[in-house]
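Please decode residue identities from the backbone states below.
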């Protein structure tokens, strides 16, 4: 059966995930919480539908932070590796999953660099389609 599966792992490699199917969109977020949490000016996330992301290794190393103090007022469950601190993915209240784009294999680092217009999301960022068996 052919399907599109993206694989990713944290910095230390303890936590591995896979995402099945196509990502819905790409979101570059520069809210204060993402900046503080990531230690960066913005984070880039690939957004996947509910229930499409599976932790394939290191479930016991995943820590969760229930982020209630968000700009939108909606709770975001931020999941990260308890060993190396890498953000792995977050979950919105509606179940959508926001995977930190840099952890995914096959995402070009160049595609994550800022665009010429500050705050502009690079639409259409995708991990390459690959066949699995
Ligand atoms: Zn780790
Ligand atoms: Zn944010």
């Amino acid at each position: 059966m052919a399907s599109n599966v993206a694989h990713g792992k944290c910095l230390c490699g303890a936590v591995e995930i896979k995402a099945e199917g196509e990502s819905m969109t790409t979101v570059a977020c520069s809210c204060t919480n993402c900046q503080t949490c990531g230690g960066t000016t913005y984070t880039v996330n690939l957004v996947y539908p509910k229930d499409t992301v599976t932790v394939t290794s290191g479930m016991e190393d995943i820590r969760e932070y229930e982020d209630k103090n968000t700009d939108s007022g909606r709770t975001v469950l931020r999941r990260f590796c308890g060993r190396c601190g890498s953000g792995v993915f977050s979950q919105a209240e509606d179940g959508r999953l926001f995977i930190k784009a840099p952890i995914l294999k096959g995402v070009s680092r160049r595609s994550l660099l800022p665009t010429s217009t500050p705050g502009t999301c690079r639409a259409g960022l995708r991990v390459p389609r690959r066949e699995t068996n």
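Observation: Confidence is low (pLDDT under 50) at residues 117-124.
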